[in-house]
């Protein structure tokens, strides 16, 4: 019975470790399999942070190149997915900083995305647009935390590992982000 339990639980971890070893040896196909296994989560994270598909694709390309180059240094202390999340999050933050320096925050595109993704019309759509604008106005360090916890459902410890900060700092940043977003949501609920 124990042998069956080990066979059911362990192979995915061993399979990932084997892919990592192969990728570290230069096997691009193995690296592509690792990316494919984590691709949906990486796309959600990058899109949530950036709000634009073209920018998301550029950032993911950059992050994946960085990950491939850094792969020989990957030591397995965290899962590959957590390690890749950190690289993608850092690449997205870098891009947000570049955008902010150039003064190119495209709130209209963000509003359009929020409206297009809303299945409801009227107040719900307006609320999404207001929230998208408020999120776009948050500093990148607050935005990533609130998106990872509230939108993606990560725990404080998982966010701490990905972002590279203590869990207490995650809690602090999340509190500040929620406080900044609360007036937008309160104003919408008062108007209803």
From TrEMBL:
What Gene Ontology biological process does one annotation of this record name?
DNA-templated transcription initiation
Q: Which residues form the RNA polymerase sigma factor 70 region 4 type domain?
A: 129-181
Q: Which InterPro entries match?
A: RNA_pol_sigma-70-like, RNA_pol_sigma-70_dom, RNA_pol_sigma70_r2, RNA_pol_sigma70_r4_t2, RNA_pol_sigma_r2, RNA_pol_sigma_r3/r4-like, WH-like_DNA-bd_sf
Kindly give the Pfam families that the UniProt entry links to this protein. Answer: Sigma70_r2, Sigma70_r4_2
A GO term, aspect molecular function: DNA binding
UniProt key word Repeat? no
Domain (RNA polymerase sigma-70 region): residue spans on this chain: 34-101
What domain of life does the UniProt record list for this protein's source? Bacteria
NCBIfam families linked:
sigma70-ECF
Q: Which family does it belong to?
A: Belongs to the sigma-70 factor family. ECF subfamily.
Q: What is this protein called?
A: RNA polymerase sigma-70 factor (ECF subfamily)
Supply the source organism for this entry. Solirubrobacter pauli
């Amino acid at each position: 019975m124990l042998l069956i339990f080990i066979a059911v639980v362990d192979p995915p971890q061993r399979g990932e470790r084997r892919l990592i070893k192969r990728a570290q040896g230069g096997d691009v196909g193995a690296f592509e399999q690792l990316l494919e296994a984590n691709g949906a989560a990486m796309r959600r994270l990058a899109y949530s942070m950036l709000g634009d598909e073209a920018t998301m694709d550029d950032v993911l390309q950059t992050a994946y190149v960085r990950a491939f180059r850094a792969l020989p240094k990957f030591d397995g202390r965290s899962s590959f997915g957590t390690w890749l999340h950190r690289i993608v999050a850092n690449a997205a933050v870098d891009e947000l900083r570049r955008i902010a320096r150039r003064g190119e925050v495209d709130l209209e595109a963000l509003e359009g995305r929020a409206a297009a993704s809303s299945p409801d019309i009227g107040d719900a759509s307006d609320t999404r647009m207001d929230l998208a604008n408020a999120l776009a106005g948050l500093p990148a360090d607050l935005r990533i935390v609130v998106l990872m916890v509230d939108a993606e459902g990560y725990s404080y410890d998982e966010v701490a590992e990905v972002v590279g900060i203590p869990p207490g700092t995650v809690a602090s940043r999340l509190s500040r982000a929620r406080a900044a977003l609360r007036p937008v949501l309160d104003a919408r609920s008062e108007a209803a």
